Model the fold of this input.
Amino acid sequence: MSATFLGMPGSFPNNAEKAVQNSQLRYNLRKATHTIRGRRASVVGELPDWQELRAAGKAIKDETLRHLDRYLLQLEEAVTDAGGHVHWARDAAEANRIVTDLVKATGETEVVKVKSMATQEIGLNEALAEHGIAAYETDLAELIVQLGDDFPSHILVPAIHRNRAEIREIFLDRMGDAPEGLTDEPAALTEAARLHLRERFLRSKVAISGANFMVAETGTLVVLESEGNGRMCLSLPETLISVVGIEKLVPSWRDLEVFLQLLPRSSTGERMNPYTSTWTGSAEGQEFHLVLLDNGRTGVLADEVGRQALRCIRCSACLNVCPVYERAGGHAYGSVYPGPIGAILTPQLRGMGSDLDASLPYASSLCGACFEACPVAIDIPEVLVHLRAEAPHGAAERAGMRLAGWVFGDRARLAGVQRLASRLRKLVPKRLPGPLSAWTDTRDLPDIPEEPFRDWWEREERHGRP
Amino acid sequence: MGAREEILGRIRQAVRGAPEVEIPRGYRTAPPVDDLAGLFAERVRDYRAIVHVLPAAEVPAAITELVRGRRMVIPDGLPPEWSEGAEPAGGSLAELDAADGVVTGCAVAIAETGTIVLDTGPGQGTRAQTLVPDYHLCVVLAGQIVAGVPEAVARLDPSRPLTWISGPSATSDIELNRVEGVHGPRTLEVIVST
Amino acid sequence: MRVALFLTCVNDTLFPGTGKAVVSLLRRLGCEVDFPAAQTCCGQMHLNTGYPQEGVRLARHFTEVFAGYEAVVVPSGSCAAMIREQYPKLVKPGSKGAAAVGRVVPRVHELTEFLLDVLKVEDVGAYFPHRVTYHPTCHSLRGLHLGDRPVRLLGRVRGLELVQLPGAEECCGFGGTFAMKNAAVSAAMGADKARNVLGTGAEVLCAADNSCLMHIGGTLARQKTGVRVMHIAEILAATEAGG
Done:
């Protein structure tokens, strides 16, 4: 994964500490995540076969990953047969080079974009800009982020950290053609975005998208969206370039019957999102290029425990139920993939060489809400714990853990420590020094008892029951 | 080595020895629904679309009532009685943008999710024709309605470009407040012909 | 019935009252209780902080200590989940101690599971005339799937008024070493949980896990709220005679 997206540069705990103090952010995030939690729960509850769909979704993705080579080749053949062109990119630089060359070949210097995590991951907009090509984001939230020179903080709702008043200000300052007297009513802000983008949609010759799914059997690509900006980009321009991670495959057309139920309900909390577009190769005479992106995915695939992260269909249900995400916000994760899924995906794609990436597996209380909400049953806590074992540990922590292991290794050593603590119980200060202050800054310590349970038990056993 | 071969090689290396997978398909493929048209209408209304459920014989008159005197995009292959009274709009993007609306049929409709699917077949228009105008009037025949997503997927032809429509265009990008009407048609009106 | 008590290192060291309550409760229900003195820690802290080798050692130690018992009772949802959910994965099939894990793990019960599923008692004869709210704790809820077992037990306690905790299923922010490594987020979660507890007007916050209670209770105490925290065993052990 390229390092173009940094978000906040510090470690997760430092970033989160700043975010926690931002009461506006806390309020915006709480309101938004709780709203969508309720919607998701209600439409998921409507389906009596949700767990069966979930089990099928998980297995279909596992099957895809198990034979990813075969399915990619099948996809390539089907797309090519349908008049499309397939390109392969080992990493971000290669993908950016391919897309840049394709755009240059059209002679255009402007492209419209549909929201795509993959192109954010590789920093495509910045790469295009270096070659004099302007990329215009057309999803409302992406537009808010792009106009505000900001970073996305959520997979589905990238501007979730902004409230209506902030968005109005961004539009007035940056849009150029914001209507006079623009209010902060969501309907008015939406209308402003519609007017701002309308002309651009009608005149753009090149569009860039990602895809939610690719069907190996038929060569079909699938994009789910709400606003119609996706349909504008996918169907009006003469040339369409889609950059898609190699794990976005499903084997057969039939498999969509599972994912078109799982994704909208998990994502926007709707029975179905307003628009889903599917196309196969060159549709209605359009020039179509598919760029298949590895960029670290094959490395994730090689990890027996971690590879389940590649099942992810980017629904963001895990973010919306995560108590840590709700308080830390998306920027603290320093990656296009925030929240619980980001905490397992980013360190696998980028490695754990930086303080930030090494701190991500610890950005969870392991409460398990993410696993429960995940429509493809990614056991995020399991992967977090797995990555923690591979993460670099500080010397002090290593020593402390070794000491604790030694104490727990034998009952006499444990009893010795317990008795020592009981003897010193009156001396423990209310506020502890150094790193231990992390506890006592906000919480009292429990009183240390006069004796541990084991001493009471031994005495009771010796003297008979009361 | 080219990128293609290198990526395929990395994949083969990565999955060597991984277990084979069985796909359990215990979910419902044909949920029992008594009143398909009724459920479909209810679910489309939930998206704040306008819905009429009418006997087939009354449909042409109802359409005429809605399109009379308006500049409508009339797709190839649309039954003539579904656009009587409308003024046909031209086919350029500018003309589509200036049109009052588009009237179409559909390929399949899904009751549980309130979804209409267009496949650019006769009477369904090109993708641009059903996207650019601000008003979309769609006629759904009772026999086109299936209960759930699996039956719809089975009926559809993946080689055709498909557009699944569930209500008017919408966004929830501002504080997760749903606002109907962004770039796609801001008004969706559906006539269910029974 | 003869049962072994795995009290957990946290309870043994910091909350002996919980251990005494479990002993008294189980004896009242006719069990013969043993506390194998060689027990130490289940290994969860090591595993979850990224030290699986120590976790494996402690898992093997646990299974050796409890190998001879037909039932092991654990008054901690989190430690019970560690043993039941993690041990079989941690001590890899075929490796040293795996067979013992296979034998011991199915006999390990969290306290409320043991009462309802093994002893099949819902009314344990307790008396506790106070307004109580219950926090389900994540590993009890989503790890062990305890469901409404604790609430059913509390519902049969005479004099006890049980009030629903808003946002009950949301994590309190303890998370083991998470409470130290991500102290700011942990404290923010704890503060929200404490606010919800206060909103119920309960005198006592109850849970099946003292680790979470140590965190929420520490927050409530720092804010001088006067709300007590109690392990469910201590409520179930209380009787009219014994107070």
About this structure: Chain B touches chain A through 73 residues (CB under 8 Å). DSSP finds five helices and twelve strands in chain B.
